């Protein structure tokens, strides 16, 4: 087989291989199974998947929100327990940060909206964003 014929064959076969399906069926004991091939003796349905993503504004639209350096900015709310945990974490480790309340501060409200945020806290470290707070995740983006 020539190289040209191999390329033509690959062009025809590869798209069909990339379009895999997930099948769902229930066995005689009522157990639900999933697989990449349907079973032979049992009727199966093809599961339709939906990609779980969210979009956010482009970085250009947020230039005034993000910091040029690695400073820490937190958008929070007074009632938020996770915000209190993050605040205490920063204070205990003497990590300087600027905080904006998204309910009482005009800048907090404005930036929160620009960020397309849906919950607090939102923590920015330079041009990186953390939704929520965990010490390990924060340490992954924080540059001392």
3D structure, described in words:
- This protein has helices at residues 3-18, 81-92, 106-114, 135-141, and strands spanning 22-26, 32-35, 45-47, 72-76, 97-101, 122-125, 128-131.
- The longest helix is centred in the N-terminal third of the chain and has 16 residues, at 3-18.
- A hairpin with a 2-residue loop joins strand 6 and strand 7.
- The protein is of the alpha+beta class and 144 residues long.
- A four-stranded mixed beta sheet has the order 5-4-6-7, with helices on both faces. Strands 2-1-3 form a three-stranded antiparallel beta sheet, with no helix packed on it.
- The model has no long low-confidence stretch (mean pLDDT 82).
- The chain is built from four helices and seven strands; from the N terminus they run H-E-E-E-E-H-E-H-E-E-H.
- Helix content is 31%, strand content 21%.
Structure keywords:
three-stranded antiparallel beta sheet, elongated, alpha+beta, four-stranded mixed beta sheet, 4 helices, 144 residues
Give the biggest beta sheet.
4 strands, mixed
Summarize the helix and strand pattern as letters: HEEEEHEHEEH
Which stretches are poorly predicted, pLDDT < 50 over at least 5 residues? Answer: none
Distance between the termini: 59 Å
What is the number of helices?
A: 4
The 3D shape can be described as: elongated
SS strand fraction: 15-25%
- What is the helical fraction, as a range of percent? 25-40%
Number of strands: 7
The SS-based structural class is alpha+beta
C-alpha-based Rg, rounded: 25 Å
Mean of all residue-level pLDDT scores = 82
| Strand numbers in spatial order across the main sheet | 5-4-6-7
